[in-house]
Amino acid sequence: MIWFGNRNGGSLIGNEVNSINPADRGFTVGEGVFETVVVREGQPFALERHLARLVNSARILRLAEPDLTVIRAAVQSAVAANVKVIGDLGRLRITYTAGQLDQIPTLMVTCTAQAPWPDNTSAITVPWIRNERSSISGAKSTSYAENVVALAAARDAGAAEALFANSVGNLCEGTTSNVFLVLDGEVLTPTLSSGCLAGVTRELVIEWFNVKEVDLPFDALFDAQEIFLTSSTRGIHPVVRIDQRHLDIGTITAQLRAQFAALAAQNVNP
């Protein structure tokens, strides 16, 4: 079941939406924002942090302010309607678009099963860049074509993720993930000024483990002793191959992954 409507309200409908207006600007020009939230045992994790980022993304795109009361109710309805289908692990997606020109924004909430990620992952570097000076830098926008192309390149190379530099040659992020390096025993991640998305899991790792945000040259990927990715559905995900370089799952990454899982289990809305 899908919750579908607008910022003023809506309802649960079947699994296929057949009422999105073709003039909706989320469809015609990609003028929309979204959040992906992991659902464990019927509970969305860190929902309030996701909603805060949704509001910030909407402001960057100059969309009408989302009504969080409506969204929270939609989330509750969508999760309750699908909890038997998704089992212990699900993926909640909140999509908020501009609607028709000068009309009320469209809101859609879906909740589907999420397959567990494998124990480790691989990535490639790509020649395309993130523009840290973009007018929508920092927004989790539905304009996702750059990510789709880079991710397809990764899959063609037998990898699961693609990593971007920014316009000044610093490490930025993956297509759907933030990136962390262990250099000389210290855990580091790119600053938000690099153009990377302010990931919710990224934010929690920084807060819980006192990780440093620094500007890192792109080549630091090949000096790091350990690399891991983060996202809402991945948690902390060790990288064992970057391009042709192979790495072990290091002690620090393994410890942080275990500690993160334990802390997340203790508090559904940290």
TrEMBL record:
GO cellular component entries: cytosol
Keywords, alphabetical: Pyridoxal phosphate
InterPro entries: Aminotrans_IV, Aminotrans_IV_CS, Aminotransferase-like, BCAT-like_C, BCAT-like_N, Class-IV_PLP-Dep_Aminotrnsfr
Cofactor: pyridoxal 5'-phosphate
Transport among keywords: no
Biological processes, Gene Ontology terms: amino acid biosynthetic process; carboxylic acid biosynthetic process
Matches recorded under Pfam families: Aminotran_4
GO molecular-function terms, A-Z: catalytic activity
Cited SUPFAM superfamilies: D-aminoacid aminotransferase-like PLP-dependent enzymes
Similarity comment: Belongs to the class-IV pyridoxal-phosphate-dependent aminotransferase family.
PANTHER family: AMINO-ACID AMINOTRANSFERASE (PTHR42743), AMINODEOXYCHORISMATE LYASE (PTHR42743:SF11)
Protein name: Unannotated protein
